[in-house]
Amino acid sequence: MSEAAARAAAGWTLRPVQIAYHVADPALAAAASAAAYGWGPFFLFEHIPLARASYRGRPMRFDHTSAYGQAGELMVEFITQHDDAPSPLRDAFRRDERGVHHIAHLVADLGAAIGTLVAGGAAVALDAETTDGVRFAMLDTRARLGHMTELYEPVPALTRFYDYVRRKAVGWDGRDPVRRLGARTT
What sign has the CA pseudo-torsion 114, 120, 124, 130? Predict the structure, then answer.
């Protein structure tokens, strides 16, 4: 049995839940995408606090801002970093560049999923945890996929946020396309 067949038999398949674009200004990108494509509304979270972060195994401060919105069944994220420190964002883009940075996936077992991707040649570019306990990892899969791959488990704090963004998109009339968030949204 091939490695791919063994993973499929074990029920391990990556299923995208989010596409993330690196942009210079998430609020502007969100407003433009809402107008052009009908995506949204977007929720802007500035200087997202992290309990911890490491870049390629070394502690780091990851000062970033993201806007999150819905495009049908898929969440869209516009992300930027506020400095030029080494990071998964700077691995792929300079401050003023734009493009697909990562695709995010929910996995049942984060450690096992990281191990599977590392065994397949990916490197852990970011291992981090939010202040409300959501651990996530960004793996460098650019050589194989052309973008990073983000993984996290469907813990309540995360699934509540995904559900919130999805609920707000239902019946959205296009008004107020970018909304600022504080530290908690349910």
Answer: negative
